[in-house]
Amino acid sequence: MIELNGRPADPESLKALALVNYGHFTSMRVDNQRVRGLALHMERLARDCATVFGARLDTDRVREYVRRAVNGQDGAFVVRVSVFDPALDMGHPSSPATPHILVTRRPSGSMDLPPLRAKSVPYVRDLPAVKHVGLFGALHARRAAQLAGFDDALFVGPDGLVSEGVTWNVGFVDAAGAVVWPEGDVLPGVTAALLQRHHGHPHTETHTHTETLRHTITPVALAAVRGMAAAFATNTSIGVRAVSAIDDVTFPTEHPVLASMRDAYLSLPGNLLADLGDEPVEAAGHM
């Protein structure tokens, strides 16, 4: 399913996206007509539209297009909302833009995925805080990692600090059982933000029935990865996925903190797309 501004898209209207490749997007997993972190996805689109195009995005219109895309569809799938300007001139990208909204739908895989093996790769995405459509460098890094026998790539900056995965945020569990998120130029992930809010705020503690959980955001050197008790990847499609290895460092794939985060994420009710209102307060927030 491919719709542009609420109507079936024709090839001519998509030419700029394919040839110029300038725009931004968000992908959201839909489970039984509900989206976890819907408000955060809308905030991302609005924020990135201002950065990429200097334009205001009507997120109510985006919601309506997404509802059209998922209407009557049962089960789990991923909806991607891409924002671009079909009239963009490559020679004059500073011209006033009229962003269009492209909505696509694809099947979603299971969240019960095998552990991930990642290879560290020196790379920093362009405009890391923006979820933009310029994926060449990131996908090339993924290809190189897979050719080396790994599942994916983990980016490391010129300062030796871990940042993010190709299409996922990375997190760690330290020896004391605290959740550690790398600080740096990374994409503010919706799933990561929801976990920090629901499972524990950054730099604070959250008391549950059985344990005290602490999340912290701090620089993580690649060399420090060796001292972590566990590692994981997060994004909207996979939820929380264990990382079993980074380079030659191995991690246990079963850890009580990982299990707790999975349970916390899956327990989020999400926002029913048929509703016009925002998501419940407890499921919203910023990374």
Concise account of the structure shown:
This protein has 287 residues and is α+β, with helices and mostly antiparallel strands. 24% of the residues lie in helices and 30% in strands.
Following the backbone from N to C, one meets helices and strands in this order, namely EEHEEHHEEEHEEEEHEEEEEHE
Distance between the termini: 31 Å
| Total E-strand runs | 17
The structural class is alpha+beta
Cα Rg? 19 Å
- Write the CATH architecture name of the largest domain: Alpha-Beta Barrel
Q: CATH topology of the largest domain, what is it called?
A: D-amino Acid Aminotransferase, Chain A, domain 2
Characterization of this structure:
The chain is of the alpha+beta class. It has two domains: 2-107, Aminotransferase class 4, branched-chain amino acid transferase, N-terminal domain (D-amino Acid Aminotransferase, Chain A, domain 1, 2-Layer Sandwich), CATH 3.30.470; 116-266, D-amino Acid Aminotransferase, subunit A, domain 2 (D-amino Acid Aminotransferase, Chain A, domain 2, Alpha-Beta Barrel). It is built from six helices and 17 strands. β15 (239-246) and β16 (249-250) form a beta hairpin. Residues 202-210 and 276-287 have low confidence and may be disordered.
